[in-house]
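seq as requested:
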Amino acid sequence: MMRHKTANGLSKNVRAEVVDLLAPRLADLIDLHLQLKQAHWTVRGPNFIANHELFDKLADEVEEFADEVAERIGQLGGQVDGTARATAKASTLKEYPSGIAGGREHIEALTRVISDAGAKMRKAIDSATKAGDADTADLFTGISRGLDKSLWFIESHAQAKD
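struct tokens:
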């Protein structure tokens, strides 16, 4: 959805195509941020403080990724729609399970959702490259790398045999 004029050097068609790539990734990142906050707010158990702080740290990082994607949409002349209702309709991530509290349950749920978000981000890298927007492909690459790091942090909690 192109709404704003810009002197950006990419053609209007490329910009429109890329905005259409960015919008669902924005919804996914906003959703992922809120899922991480849900885990942060509800986790309990023996590793409470470590999990609580980790989930909050990762939520902050994902919120920054969402901000970068939203700003890129604006740079290309698109209109951002990041409201809760719009995000709920547009997110392609599975809904976070309600009623869980244990650290291991949250780790398993977050592993699935971060992995899914990362896979979709990698597909977006290829799509942005094919569209001819190296800058957006680079943005997606950085976010993909960040999500891989988040996944590593989360998975590392499940791999230890204490």
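The chain has a mean pLDDT of 95.
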